[in-house]
Amino acid sequence: MPSWAPLQAAELFLVDTPQRPARDGTFTPLSQLPVPEALFSGVSQPSPSRGRQEAPLTNLGVDVDQFWDQEAEDSGSDGWDDVVDEVYEEEISPTIRACLRHRCGVPALDRSAGALRVGGAYAPNDCYFTEQEQGHLGFPLGSALEIVGPPGIGKTTWVLNIAMQERLYHILNSLQLALEDPAAAFDSDEVDWDDWMEDNVLPWCAQVVLADTEGAITAFTLLQLAQETAKNAMESSVCVEWRKNLPNAYNQQYDSLVRSLLQGMHLVQIKSIGELLAFLGVAASSILKVPGLPPRTSLLILDSISFLLNTHSLDPEASREQRQGRLQALNCVIQAITTLRDYHIPEHDRLSIIVTNQMATRMPGERRSDPGSESVLVPSLTTAPSMRSSFDTSAYDWGPSILGKSAWRVLLFYYTAQASR
Asked: Region Disordered: which residues (predicted)?
């Protein structure tokens, strides 16, 4: 297996890091490795701050006025180091995002996923809410969702809506808490709403990372989606309370909400397998608290995972080594995704992963184990079929998702000739 930075963390920091044996004997999830001591040697680490959902509403924000108002005494030095250390301790305390579930926008699917108590790789499969605790909606943190379907079915559009709704849910949740906080009160519409959101709402909101391998996601598309999402959100009960007794604040608050939505959406354009491996390698390093993904990232979307890794991306005359390299790259991608959604990571640091997977036509006789006479439409990246259907020669058991047995797979298809999905 080629070297892969996140899984070689012990070598990077030149320390002996004991590894816990993996369950399947192939690799050890990075989240189960201790943080290398050499990374933080000689640096005093502040204790993590409590999240917005736990902290008293009267103790929000970081007070650094003392730094600007006081002057250091002349003691033979400029006194800069002591003051900087004090502010450094305050500002780097991590802000914990709220542990909100992810909603896909399909009520039946959200209700089904809401029955699960926990999510993530290596999570117990039989951990459900009791009848008294039922009523949750959405996927638990750490979930993996694979969306497959033919070209033009709307996979990218769906994942973009999920991403925008994820950002919106966190903004509305933090906005509700800010409206209940006396320290964030306002009594007129002469307020810079961008600054107010920056101080009282956005520091506690989750962020979303979009990794685009096809070039189908543009900044203009995100802007249009953010404008439509903000327009609908302005009629919600939270936003109505926000502009209560402020008849002239609608337009300013709407513009601020659009900017707040886009501020937490990070688009990464990936054009090669090397860039894909580098991006996921840096992303997985976030588990070691090494700067990788943006802070408070809760959702990573990869559109699509098959564009650079399917068999048709190789030259028909590719050598055996090149084909093995493709499989090794795919294994590294899966390991990075598994690392990010490991059940052993604290819930407020765990990521959910959504990938889109293209579909391809498998021609008859393409495989020796497939003597069928009909062409079938299958995911471009999938595990080997575990069995052939006995009642329909064109149906296959695709096996579990390439993201693992705990992943959800959703198949999009046209329901009628009128292109109803």
From this structure: 39-58
Q: Is residue 289 part of a domain?
A: yes
| Structural domain includes residue 148 | yes
Nearest CA to 299 out of 271, 265, 275, 331 is that of 265
- Domain membership flag for residue 219: yes
- Phi, psi for 288 (deg, rounded to 5): -85, 10
Integer Cα distance of 341 and 363 in angstroms? 35
What is the average per-residue pLDDT within 278-297? 85
Determine contact, residues 33/17, Cβ cutoff 8 Å: yes
Q: Which one is predicted more confidently, 383 or 331?
A: 331
Which residues are paired to 410 by β-bridges? Answer: 147
- pLDDT(19) > 50: no
Q: What strands, in cross-sheet order, belong to the sheet with 352-357? A: 265-269, 207-212, 297-303, 352-357, 144-148, 408-411
**Taking 70 as the threshold, does the pLDDT of residue 282 lie above it?**
yes
- For residue 408, the model assigns a pLDDT of 87
Show the domain range for 140. Answer: 107-411
* pLDDT digit string, tens, across residues 233-242: 999 999 999 8
Residue 25 lies in a domain: no
In the numeric block, the tokens 């964030």 are attached to: 184
Site of tokens 């909603």: 103
Residue 55 has pLDDT above 50, yes or no: no
Residues 136, 114 contacting (CB under 8 angstroms): yes
Distance CA 277, CA 300 (A): 15
The distance between the two most distant Cα atoms of the chain, rounded to a whole number of Å, is: 89
